[in-house]
Design a protein that fits this description.
With about 400 residues, the protein is an alpha/beta fold. The chain folds into two domains: about 1-100, no CATH class; about 155-340 and about 380-405, no CATH class. About 50% of the residues lie in helices and about 15% in strands. It has 16 helices and seven strands. It has helices at about 5-10, 20, 25-50, 105-115, 120-130, 135-155, 210-225, 240-245, 255-265, 275-285, 290-305, 310-320, 330-335, 340-350, 360-375, 385-405; strands at about 65-75, 75-85, 160-175, 180-190, 200-205, 230-235, 250-255. A hairpin with a 2-residue loop joins strand 3 (about 160-175) and strand 4 (about 180-190). The relative contact order is 0.10.
Length: about 400
């Protein structure tokens, strides 16, 4: 609706400084108050069926009954609103419903700040500084509490019947459990569907990362509709491949070489880490399994005497490393470019770093879920996905069609 310039000029006739408009008692706050109160009075008139002082209301069975004060919080600060009442107490304003003390959008601002890792104290300070609104820790908890139900629905939602690639990993988060603060594992599963779209399939908490708990995670994914996974990217956790194959027996389990390189560097002194990492790279970048094995032998020849444990580590995990080299270049390129676990973990750690610990598992999952929504909004379809999908069709076309069959 267009506002007449004459009306604006009338409102601004005494304007001298910005505070006259946006100050504590400025025009904007007074205008919002006036519009709200006038709108509620109009609603009450409609509810009663007659205008104020209209004789038609005489002995109608209901009439106006003054007002009651109400404090409302919003981006403009705090407003004292006079809410009209009726004698029968049947009137409920629509523009500002009963019990509502915050304007639509204000709660979203609290949730947005919370999702970006701001602590309750920081949110309080920010709202006070920017909007002049006092909020309590209880209010922040109440606003974000609604997210908990959203997390439960998200965690139990139906999933796609098949994923081209699934990345499984865990990160550790400090949270209170049974009266004491512990570093607990948060299990994360990222799936890439047949359209090349990435999605976090769920979050699960446990005392530590273990293949037994991963088995329950995979079972949960299956119960939510996942019939097959073509490639599953994992770390070198003992028993992990067996847990995957127990639920998804046809899945190609691939050990993440980045994890293996990082584990190798744990044996290396600080001064030589950079050079050792550079000498391990040719193994990962080899064109074939034979070339990768040759590069591994070359590495052992160079560093084997000083760091025997590294050669042993690669030899023990070699059977889970080499499947990658059997894939065509298109598939390998996609797997490299979609290895989003590390990037996701960096984003999540950035969000939770301001908190010493979480009061509960539920509080941790609530923040991680909100952070995921912000991070995943920036995700785009995987590059080169069509080329990889063509290869998947050649390699596993029957499995793809079987999983998609209703």
């Amino acid at each position: 609706m267009k506002i007449r310039t004459e009306l604006i000029d009338e409102l601004l006739k005494d304007y001298q400084k910005p505070e006259d408009i946006i100050g504590e008692n400025g025009l904007l706050k007074r205008f919002v108050k006036a519009v709200l109160e006038r709108a509620m009075n109009a609603e009450l008139t409609h509810h009663l069926g007659y205008e104020k002082h209209d004789p038609a209301g005489y002995k109608s069975g209901n009439s106006r009954n003054g007002t009651s004060g109400k404090t409302v919080k919003g981006e403009f600060g705090e407003l004292e609103i006079e809410v009209p009442r009726d004698r029968a107490s049947t009137f409920e304003p629509r523009i500002l419903p009963k019990h509502q003390t915050r304007f639509t959008g204000f709660d979203d601002k609290i949730i947005s700040m919370y999702a970006r890792g701001m602590t309750t104290r920081e949110i309080e300070g920010h709202l006070k500084e920017i909007y002049g609104v006092d909020v309590s820790p209880t209010l922040v908890s109440q606003v974000t509490e609604a997210v908990s139900e959203e997390v439960k629905r998200w965690q139990s939602r139906a999933l796609e019947p098949i994923y081209g690639i699934v990345y499984l990993d865990a990160l550790y988060v400090k949270m209170r459990h049974e009266g004491r603060v512990e570093n607990r594992a948060v299990y994360v599963a990222i799936g890439v569907d047949l359209e090349g779209q990435k999605d976090v399939l769920g979050l699960w908490c446990s005392a530590n990362e273990g293949s037994k708990f991963w088995l329950s995670v995979l079972t949960d994914l299956k119960n939510r509709g996942v019939k097959d996974m073509l490639i599953v990217w994992v770390d070198r956790l003992k028993g992990f491949p067996q847990a995957i194959e127990a639920v998804f027996p046809l899945a190609q389990v691939q050990l993440c070489v980045v994890h293996l390189i990082r584990a190798s560097l744990n044996y290396v002194n600080w001064k030589e880490r950079k050079q050792v990492a550079a000498d391990l790279k040719p193994i990962d970048r080899a064109a074939t399994a034979a070339e990768a094995e040759m590069n591994l032998e070359s590495f052992i020849l160079t560093w084997g005497q000083k760091y025997k444990a590294i050669g042993k580590l690669w030899k023990e995990n070699w059977e889970r490393v080499i499947p990658f080299f059997a894939f065509p270049e298109e598939v390998r390129k996609v797997i490299y470019t979609t290895n989003a676990v590390e990037a996701l973990h960096r984003g999540l750690r950035k969000i939770i770093k301001n908190r010493g610990s979480f009061p509960s598992e539920e509080a941790a999952l609530k923040l991680l879920y909100l952070a995921l929504q912000n991070i995943s909004e920036k995700w785009e379809a995987v590059q080169h996905w069509k080329q990889a999908l063509n290869q998947f069709e050649i390699l596993w076309g029957d499995r793809i069609r079987a999983a998609q069959k209703v």
